[in-house]
Amino acid sequence: MLIEAHVYQRLLREIDELPRNIINTWQANKAVRLHCEFDKYADMNMHLEIKNPDGSILDDINYNNLKKGDLNKLYNSLGSYLHLPMPEKVESYVIEKEAISGMLSKLEKIISGNLIVYKVKYESIECSGCGKGIIFTQYYLETHNSIICQNDNCKLEYAIHVKGESTQLSLDYRGFSCHVCHNEIPLPYSKIADGFSFQCSSCSTDFKFELQIRTETPHPE
User: Fold this and answer.
1) What is the C-alpha separation between 63 and 43, in angstroms, rounded?
2) Does position 93 have pLDDT exceeding 80, yes or no?
3) Of 49, 129, 147, 154, which is least packed with CB atoms within 10 Å of its CB?
């Protein structure tokens, strides 16, 4: 609960700006990983000095954070102790007190300090498929090749093209007509593959690609 409280306290400060897939992620370690894709400062410690006009320090504020890799290890390791062992392992099951004490000592630092948020700029563009906003940051565009619409009923994938100081999002897709409601379903070419399942956003009809290979060339004699 301590890890979750630490993570969710941070997310709540930007709840109106963050993509919904981050806010709606119930596992704290996954939420941090997604958050770091948009904000490179999301898992960093912060330090703020407030000085008087004469240069003397008036206040010194620290925000103690956990790097996403360390948080993930602690979250999974501590979480493993929340479950009962399998019946065949009950007799040999041992709670490693030293290991737990070591993990708890690493968590002590996030108990003290004050929350400091370095604000980054979140931007949004309208998705061509569903009309909902796709939220991004400049950091995300610089570190990814594509971005997926955050609407769970759409999830169109856009390629990110960086040309000098400008960045463009392009969508190469094929439109399929739903035989039930006649709604056009836009699908990126990258998703058209054997076994890929998708759904009509209008009537929720399910579809699935099934690859068929044919040839007119007969078997050699």
Assistant:
1) 10
2) no
3) 49
- State the CB neighbour count (10 A cutoff) for residue 200: 20
The mean pLDDT of the chain is 87
> 19-46, pLDDT tens digit by residue?
988 988 889 999 999 999 999 999 999 9
| Domain range summary for the chain, segments of one domain joined by + | 2-112, 122-209
Give the residue among 157, 166, 143, 161 at the shortest CA–CA distance from 189. 157
What's the length of the chain?
221
Q: What is the mean pLDDT of residues 61-85?
A: 87
CA angle in degrees (0–180, nearest 5) for 17-18-20: 120
Residues sharing a CB contact under 8 Å with residue 124, sequence separation 6 or more, in sequence order = 133, 134, 135, 136
φ/ψ region of 150 (left if φ > 0, alpha if ψ in -120 to 50, else beta) reads alpha
DSSP, collapsed to helix, strand or coil, labels residue 58 as strand
Is the pTM value of this prediction over 0.85?
no
